[in-house]
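Researcher: Next entry in the queue.
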Amino acid sequence: MRVFIGRYSERMRTAPEIALPLSLDGGESGSTVGGSLPARIAAELRRLIGETVLAPGDAVPSSRALAAHLGVSRGSVVAAYDQLLAEGYLSAAVGRSTVVNPQLRRVHPPPRPPRPAPRRRPEAPPVLDLRPGRPWAADVVGPAWRAAWREATAAPVDDAVPALGLPGLRRAWADHLRRMRAVVRDPAQLAVTGGGREGFALLLLALGEGSPARLRVGVEEPGYPSLRRVPARFGATVVPVPVDERGLRVADLPAGSDAPDVLIVTPSHQYPMGGSLPVDRRQELLEWARRFRVVIVEDDYDSELRYTSEPLPALAALDDPSDGRVVLLGTLAKTLTPALATGFLALPAWLVPAVAEARAELGQPVGLVPQRAVANYLESGALRLHTQRMRNRYRRRRAQVVAALSGVPGVRVSPMDGGLHAVVETARPEADVVADLAAAGVGVSPLSGYWSGAGAEGVVFGFGAATEADLALALAQIARAASAPRGADDPA
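Model: Structure for this entry, 492 residues:
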């Protein structure tokens, strides 16, 4: 309630009316101080005195008049006045009006809290979120999954986790790599990680002997942005290396003193453009790494999800397991679910001590029970069966994407031999396409974000986590937004 209390001279003839903007509801001009009614009245009067609306010597309304105007009891006003008299804000003498203390200097009231800014509505998430990187996780939780976790939680939990991970999980990973990726490694050469980025960071710490800033790290251009940011975060020098439709351009790699210390590559399924590194380039890459003593990090993020042929052997399968140059970086994020945040490094023997030392200093990021559960799941063969089922599902989604976007004017779809994402280069400006899709409730990623500098324009979107019905709706919007505008191909 906001009221204006009139103060008049004794006979209302010589003095003008003085309005007092007194508020008890915490509104625009009022205090937000809570508490009892007398405390709130006193707080408002302090504010008026501090703002010199009531100056030293000014009379205040009688307790009876103020109570009547406020619609409160006179006792509340009297209690407020008594408090201000005790504090020295007011002065009273027998037979005279109560006034602001004439001896009172300018009082600066406590600053009022700033008015809260109007709440902005958070941006609505896309109705159809096709940002890349998410698998279909709805079918993960099944009998094999539940059994793996029941067994893991039933065992004692007082065991310490070795720095490189539980021996049982490392054996399970080694067996999986032998069966699925043709990579033969002793379990002692595997390290359990908290996923792809965590494993990459661990490796850089080990190779840099605790100071990764001194490293030169080669990354594919274009490439996975988050893996490019890992060495940059450490202060390492990031060296972009070119790719084409067949993957890494080995012939263009820097040599001699310009060669990087570490090179991270995606030979089975170049990210994001989709090429697969042929065997002749793989051999050239290994020879280059041996010659210039470069550690190659093979990011094997989705190599088992291949649709046009069987999964390609890993680059690490061509390397010497003892004194080779390839570290295989693996994760369950694409084949199973990123929610586990679990992966591995398959190391050449010479590199194991340095990684073990770095891991011992940092600690093992994956707990005892999750490691047991993943080991149980792998040993049961459930991951291989799940991967096969998902490969069939994703193959249908891939066919859906190709059918919807093939022949659309101004649209070029990059090869889709595997993986969970599609790359669409567009004739229209990328920003316009992304904005139009966002307005239509479809979330995609701009293709230019995968380059460190200027690159191709278009969109990258995932098709793994959407239902076929939702994907059909999204593809119709993508075709509409990405197609060349009317008249774009007409001669000027």
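Model: The domain at 143-382 is CATH 3.40.640.10 (Aspartate Aminotransferase; domain 2).
Researcher: Noted, moving on.
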